[in-house]
């Protein structure tokens, strides 16, 4: 008989984390442990208010289908449960972890991937004043790729100050839907001037038509606009890349299918995350080998990580240890 254990946890952020939509000091996650015949599989996910999901809602949704989960539902039939995406993600990852332990095979083998190698992850700088972000960039110059949270007045000044502080750093930008169509051309010109490689979600997801066929010198990546295979078609002509996050797709199983479909449509791929521990990063890390950009720095932004967490050495992520997941 399978047993389901549900948890909700708060993990302190090192300082605070600010994006265009606001600030937070805690990472709120849900956890699932599935135990069967002495073996356990774990999953972690982040319910995100932007997608109208909360920790209590996700926990309640999983409790409501406890019988189906404990009776032996698998990751290929869990879609029938109609769970919120974050809850589905945690369950999918726990099922994969349990499946791997029962079979004696690593998850990467079971899903048909190559054995993962080290990967470069972006390191995120929280939205702040130009001076504060420039100072943070200077302190973080040892990371091979810096991700700048923008999306408020003064972004050009922020870009200028940061580029002066780190003239040789690789930069990507995440506006978190904070720009408007009116300022878009000016902001994209500035990103090109300051050698920004990629801009994530510059416009609100429901008002991004201005991106269609707009000339750009940098890659435009959909985040809040990109969730599943069904939505890919409407992104063609507006975006050059998509940010795949397991909390948006509903797990690694669906994320793998989305990555394959995105490649077939000639999109570049970023693998991203919400603020969470290494347990949430581990499944997403398997997608790094399919990605052009990896942004899985969540644990680096926390005051502490889980035991046996992923090793980060100057922005280089190592594959997760089996004692963590997979």
Can you offer a commentary on this structure?
It is a single chain. This protein has two domains: 3-104, 2-Layer Sandwich (Enolase-like, domain 1), CATH 3.30.390; 119-317, Enolase-like C-terminal domain (TIM Barrel). Strands 5-6-7-8-9-10-11-12 form an eight-stranded parallel beta sheet. It has a three-stranded antiparallel beta sheet with strand order 1-2-3. Helix 5 (130-139) packs parallel to helix 6. It has helices at residues 55-64, 66-70, 85-103, 107-110, 130-139, 155-165, 184-193, 246-249, 252-264, 278-285; strands at 3-19, 22-36, 39-45, 119-120, 123-125, 146-149, 171-174, 196-200, 219-222, 241-244, 268-271, 293-294, 312-313, 316-317. With 326 residues, it is an alpha/beta fold. The longest helix is centred in the N-terminal third of the chain and has 19 residues, at 85-103. The protein has ten helices and 14 strands.
């Amino acid at each position: 008989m399978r047993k389901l254990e549900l948890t909700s946890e708060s993990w302190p952020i090192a300082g605070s984390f600010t994006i265009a939509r606001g600030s937070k000091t805690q990472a709120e996650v849900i956890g699932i442990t599935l135990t069967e015949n002495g073996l356990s599989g774990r999953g972690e996910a982040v319910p995100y208010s932007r997608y109208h999901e909360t920790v209590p809602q996700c926990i309640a949704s999983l409790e409501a289908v406890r019988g189906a989960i404990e009776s032996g539902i698998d990751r290929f039939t869990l879609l029938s449960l109609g769970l919120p995406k974050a809850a589905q993600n945690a369950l999918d990852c726990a099922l994969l972890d349990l499946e791997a332990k029962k079979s004696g095979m690593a998850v990467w083998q079971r899903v048909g991937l190559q054995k993962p190698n080290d990967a470069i992850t972006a390191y995120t700088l929280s939205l702040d004043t130009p001076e504060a972000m420039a100072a943070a960039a200077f302190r973080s110059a040892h990371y091979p790729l810096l991700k700048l949270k923008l999306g408020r007045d003064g972004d050009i000044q922020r870009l200028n100050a940061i580029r002066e502080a780190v003239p040789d750093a690789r930069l990507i930008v995440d506006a978190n839907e904070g720009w408007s169509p009116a300022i878009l051309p000016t902001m994209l010109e500035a990103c090109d001037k300051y050698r920004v490689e990629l801009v994530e979600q510059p416009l609100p997801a429901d008002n991004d038509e201005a991106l269609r066929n707009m000339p750009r010198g940098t890659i435009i990546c959909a985040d809040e606009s990109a969730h599943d295979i069904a939505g890919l078609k409407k992104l063609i002509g507006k975006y050059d890349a998509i940010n795949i996050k397991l909390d948006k797709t509903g797990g690694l199983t669906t994320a793998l299918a989305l990555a394959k479909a995105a490649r077939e449509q000639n999109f570049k791929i970023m693998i991203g995350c919400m603020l969470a521990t290494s347990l949430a990063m581990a499944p997403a890390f398997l997608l790094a080998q399919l990605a052009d950009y990896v942004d899985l720095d969540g644990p680096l932004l926390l005051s502490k990580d889980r035991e046996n967490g992923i090793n980060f050495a100057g922005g280089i992520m190592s594959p997760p240890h089996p004692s963590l997941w997979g």
